[in-house]
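Thread: Putative Adipose-regulatory protein, structure

OP (GT): Posting the sequence first so everyone is looking at the same thing. Length is 651 residues per the record. Can we get the structure tokens written out before standup tomorrow? I want them in the notebook alongside the other entries.
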Amino acid sequence: MERDMNLQHFSHKHPLIFSKEHVDEGKEIVLCSGCEKPVLGPSYGCDRCEFRLHEICANLPVEINHPFHRDHPLVLLSNPPARYVECLCDFCDASCNGFVYHCLSCDFDIDVPCALLLPCLTGEFIELERFSHQHQLVFIEKLDGSVCCLGCKEVISGPGYGCSRCEFFLHKKCLMLSPEIRHPYHREHPLILLTNRPPYYSSCACDFCHRTCQGFVYHCPTCKFDLDIRCASLPRCIVEAENHRHRFIHLMKPLSFICDTCGIEGDRFPYLCTQCQVMVHEECRFLPNTIEIRDHCHPVTHFSLLQRISDSCNHRCGICHDEVSRKYGGYGCFCCDFIVHSNCAVANSVSVIKTKGDEFFDSINDLGEADMVAMVVKHFSHPHNLTMNAKVNDYKLCDCCMRPIMEQFYSCEECVIFLHGTCLELPRKKQHPLHSHPLTLLEKHPSFGGLFFCDGCHQRCHGFTYSCEQCDFNLDVRCGSLSNILKHESHEHPLVFSKRSKCSACGFSNEALYSCSDCNFALDFDCALLPNVVKHKHHEHPLDLTYQRDADQIYCDICEEEIDPKRWFYRCKVCNFYAHPKCASGRYPYIKLGKTYPYEAHPHPVAFVHKTKGNAPCSKSGNPCKGLALECTKPQCNFIIEWCHVEILHL
């Protein structure tokens, strides 16, 4: 097909001119406005603007039918919809700032690289359009070892993919390589997958093994750093951490680095958290969360470089009196404005409060060596395997945190149970600033129906709980996941756990809050954990959390009472709909209403319900039921009892 040298593309107001030029060494790299990847070869560009498109991106179809979203066609947009705060690809979860294929009915979005990974059934073969090749690749069930993979340059014996027009073959694992990765050996920038060495190289050597790169290469155009795909996919040992919420990868290469926990240089085999890009010594990986040190009345708690200490906070170590750098971690007692270096705290410790979590999560089937995402897991809370689901099809609550599921989650194929991926990673034991004893994660509180009172946000909750059996102290996992330092988007400074009289969000007094040492600002647990967006059954649009508003007087459209504009509230961006946080979230946001249980005082199963005025009389008191209650699920049975009477019976 003859190529158009001039193209009027719908995404740009000026004509685009075709260029065969390849990027020379030293020339500034330009990103494609469609897929946001570097333009290294033939492309279309505008002479008047900094606008450029890969040839393949310039010729994308304006509408496609995609197997990841079979219900409706996807329309190509030059920018994400204007109503989005942020557009995420529903396949890879990456941010979409360039072209995006969008479903006008379901708000389903997929970026260009993922859309080009388009499988379609063709007879007995599976064809796949791949970003690395201009033709469709056909699945071949058996290759006899006579061809080499163009990705890794190794012989293919067994299943693979090939081009019916060219001598182009790939292993399945090479076909599915991510077009962009972040790698521990080059933390500064992402690495981009190239099918050949960069055009400005005469030869290309892997910066890890120093061998010549023969096939695909992961490349950083900014630093000219390269990894062949074998080194990029090397298996790495995954280990637990004492004072970090994610697992660490043990790097099998001596590196010169500064430890992000203690700030001291190292030259051995470091440990890396790929999610936070934190690199630490082996010994710093085992630092406890809380330490008691000599000559200080309170335990000190570990803070990481991710939990920045305030500018106004004392920056001198309470032991050696040298400066504690805000670039690295340390230990602090923020009630006393007392901080120390990590090494000083350990050297002067008198006892250590152990909080190391138990192993809770066994990988059954990995998605890929480089991705390290488990498709099937075994969790301590459930007897069956849990399978990952990439897309949410209807409204579901996580059985751990009782929040709506809006992202990939895990579920049981045999039971009705749903868990966020992040909830699977919660530690089994932890120390919390609200309580002096270690807390244990329970999948269900031992009380009737698993309902418990959270000592952090003072809400009645279902779901998992961090519990101290000795003291009858309980926290839901939302409150239990909070640490000594909180960074909230409503305030510019970090908030530290303290005793303060009044919450700035709701105006109510509370015994324990997070406060700012620089400002007269504090948040209680309930307000600190308010979701940014909620859906209410009486309003068609989502409601956004609003921190304050310059208005004389506004009213809640749910309870019709006045809203103080100086306090937090929810509002609809589309129409003038306002709601108090309690009204928007509901009276019992963390209780699974409708869930049934056997009840020893009644022959039939009962369910948790929320009753308002004018309901049937309580079978215990005879008064009309109001608030939380248990109701018989059997038709024609009028048994109902208010929760306060059930609670008294089970004390």
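GT: Both are above now. Quick notes for whoever picks this up: Residues 63-116 form one domain. Residues 118-129, 305-312, 351-373 have pLDDT under 50 and may be disordered.
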